[in-house]
Amino acid sequence: MPLPSQPLRKLGFLTIGLFDEADPRTGHESTLEIIELGERLGFDSAWLRHRHLQYGISSPVAVLAAASQRTTRIELGTAVIPLGWENPLRLAEDLATVDLLSGGRLNPGVSVGPPMHYDQVKGALYPDTADAEDFGYDRVSRLLDFVRGKPATDFSGVEGFEVFSDRVQPHAAGLGRRLWYGGGSLRSARWAGENAMNFLTSSVVKAEDSEDFAEIQLSHVRAFRAAHPDGDRARVSQGLVVIPTDSATPQQRAKYAAYAEKRTPRTAVPQGPARMMFAPDLVGTSAEIAERLYAHAAFREIDEVAFALPFTFEHADYVQILTDIATVLGPALGWRPAAQG
Taking every annotated instance into account, which residue ranges of this chain make up the domain Luciferase-like (predicted)? Predict the structure, then answer.
């Protein structure tokens, strides 16, 4: 069991990037400013969630392209892109392009499954092929192949004045090793390991053999590494909701406590037909949060985190939370901020 003296190696954060429908630019600009702040504070990575037909970032790859030009060091990730909304070949082109623009800092995370509310959206998304679309692991395999440089066509060469490649261009060397799978089940964990991906495990898991969140998450981490060619060295990042209050105002502390209290009932038992388990939000001083993390069985198994920011807070709240994570909680977990270039 790792002790508090064994350091957290990589510290990141995850945000949804909410915006006002009447003024969407301000919300997107706020997200970019938060990423810039994360780099100044020494965070190792910043991750964006993905929302379609909602008031959150629908195109994280585009936002990360902008972030790549406003930062120089911090790694930029997606957690996660639901591939049911994507064409793997086109997505591979976009990811490679942004990775090159960022200087090799992109960490794309993906997941499978049909799009949310598929019956309502399939006519707009796949008007002619809705019943034929495959939303399983094969969709990820196609993306992996394209990103890793396998041929996408049997045609290449010169046609007139144009030169054609048989693989996705541009090709971003190294990006194939920085692809992550966001999984919440044992099957997903094993599949990600078998396909030499990295593994994102969040605050939501499927209750299959247990109803203890930490125990379930630990089983996923171990199943992933058992199946991965790199074994115990295979990369896993944990994404719990963490809200330190060290420098928070009394009003912020009250808001954070009310937010967590409202969400706590769903953590007691599995939710819905899929039996999803939710981790409790960790709210309190950094010392209190560090103690709870070291008591968490899955946290003791990993050395990378991407702490999730709450969905509905204000920009100033995120500044306070990120500052406390970087200056108080991170050091309490043995982490050291990245050197500024």
Answer: 29-293
pLDDT of residue 1: 40
Residue 341 confidence class, pLDDT cut points 50, 70, 90? low
Is the pLDDT confidence value at 4 over 70?
A: no
Question: What 8-state DSSP symbol labels residue 15?
Answer: E
Q: Is residue 296 part of a domain?
A: yes
Residue 2 clears pLDDT 70, i.e. is over it:
no
Strands 276-278 and 204-206: antiparallel
Please enumerate in sequence order all residues whose Cβ is within 8 A of that of 32, keeping only pairs 6 or more positions apart, or say none. Answer: 63, 66, 67, 70
Domain residues for the domain of 194 are 10-152+168-332
Report which secondary-structure segment, H or E, holds 10.
Answer: strand 10-15
The Cα–Cα gap between 298 and 215 comes to: 7
Query: How far is Cα 161 from Cα 64, in angstroms, rounded to an integer?
Result: 34
The answer for residues whose C-beta is within 8 angstroms of residue 60's C-beta and 6 or more apart is 17, 48, 49, 50, 78, 81
- Residue 338, in any domain of the structure: no
Residue type, 54: Q
- Domain of 252, CATH number, reads 3.20.20.30
In a domain, 144, yes or no: yes
Phi, psi of 180 (to 5 degrees): -120, 150
Cβ partners under 8 Å of residue 204, min gap 6 = 184, 276, 277, 278, 279
Rounded CA separation 195/212 (Å):
28
Q: How many structural domains compose the chain?
A: 1
User: For residue 132, is it within any domain?
Assistant: yes
Closest CA to 332 of 252, 242, 257: 242
pLDDT over threshold 90, residue 338: no
Two tokens, residue 310: 């709450």
- Determine which helix (DSSP H) or strand (DSSP E) holds 92, and give its type and residue range: helix 88-102
